[in-house]
Amino acid sequence: MNLLQCIKLWGFSPFGESVPISKNLNNIKVIENFGRETYKIPIIPYAYFDWLIERSNILREVIVLNRISGHPNVIKFYKLLEKITVWSGMI
Is the pTM here over 0.90, yes or no? Predict the structure, then answer.
């Protein structure tokens, strides 16, 4: 699946209200087949999971930059542009 299809299917918060901020969040669902076999299946694709983590990290940095933007030693932050294409998302 490409990035736009993942966003359309799961949105920006596939794990509910919490935004993934680290890779420690469990993305694996364990399915048992009548007690004989277990299968470990990712909840969302790994590439999309990594993209969500990177996006949330960047947005958190933007929030921090906005909080301290009044200080004279900090570069003033004007705007954020987010462009999401089929295969990538850029901020």
Answer: no
